[in-house]
Amino acid sequence: MALSAASHPAGHAVTLWARDAAQAASMAAERQNARYLPGISFAPSLQLASGDPLEAARAADLVIAATPMAALRATLARLQAVAAPVAWLCKGFEAPAGDAPDAAGLMGHEVCAQTAPGLRIGVLSGPSFAQEVALARPTALVAASAHADVRELLVQAFHSPSLRVYANDDVVGVEVGGAVKNVLAIATGLCDGLHLGLNARAALITRGLAEMTRLGVALGARTDTFMGLSGLGDLVLTATGDLSRNRRVGLLLAEGRSLEQAVASLGHVAEGVYTARTVVRRAQALGVEMPIARAVVDLLDGVMQPAEAVAALMGRDPAAELG
Q1: 91 is annotated as an active-site residue
Q2: Which residues are within 8 A (CB) of 224 and not within 5 positions of it... i.e. 6 or more apart?
Q3: Quick one: which H or E segment has residue 190?
Q4: Are 304 and 298 in contact, with CB atoms under 8 Å apart?
Q5: pLDDT-derived band of residue 270, with 50, 70 and 90 as boundaries?
Q6: What is the pLDDT of residues 314-323, one digit of tens each?
């Protein structure tokens, strides 16, 4: 996203801050992120920084937090005195402290309400692989915020010929879609890895969308949000795309790899692995049925083997389609 903003026709001044000073120095010297996006050169105008993030953000008009979900709380705590709006890119539910079995995970905006309630916030989400955004391939995203001016600022910062950004005020719906689709992508990867066919994949994605929508509406989201980019769009991409880390986890589990082996082989965070349990707990607390997500949790926890999980996914009793 920093590469996209730095190449924007409006000529934005963009600083990419890294928590690791050595990584920041390496990127500044090589003018690329050799670890995660090798071979993709930085725009000459892109600045690199490390050290105190609050100091780096003080003069900014907009701050984007690009961390895994597990790091969002600490990041927002360090940025709570920033005057500019803060938006994040992570997709997931935060795991409760100590992983207490009766605690439900929080969405990003709920984490912010606890940690930095004075911030004016937003969320950027939608069907987007980082590599394709960095290569300026056509992408469409959603900028969600309760504040109209924050939505407009996000659109102005990123909307370009290659990156289309659409505003939405349904923060809950956008965050639920971004979180749950990662869990569902593990399930579709599992089905693909077991060679169950395209019919099974389509059925799983469709029923997964219904699960996602049920949870979102129970949390206060609008149904129509899940028919858009941050719901159906992101689900289809993550469940079918070869660049999807969460789908890859399902594929590797189908091959007989352990969860530890699957995660270690990625080299990146697969948020669905860490979000699945918190999604299911949140759903249980609300009385929302999510059988696909539940089967994914049982698979990740070793309660079910891949073939058993698929049987649970595809062997549900007959019922009316809606609901």
Answers
A1: no
A2: none
A3: helix 171-193
A4: yes
A5: confident
A6: 766 556 665 5
Sign of CA dihedral 314, 318, 320, 323: negative
| Annotated catalytic residue, options 12, 159, 181, 245 | 181
Task: Please give the Cα distance from 178 to 182 (Å, whole number).
Answer: 7
Q: Which of 135-144, 161-170, 273-282 has the lowest mean pLDDT?
A: 273-282
Q: φ and ψ at 164, to 5 degrees?
A: -100, 130
Query: What is the pairing mode between strands 37-41 and 32-33?
Result: antiparallel
- C-alpha distances in angstroms, 191 versus 98, 137, 197, 212, 251? 32, 29, 8, 19, 8
Please write the tens of the pLDDT for every residue from 82-140.
999 999 999 999 988 765 555 668 999 999 999 999 999 999 999 999 999 999 999 99
**Burial degree of 101 (CB within 10 A; 0-12, 13-18, 19+):** exposed
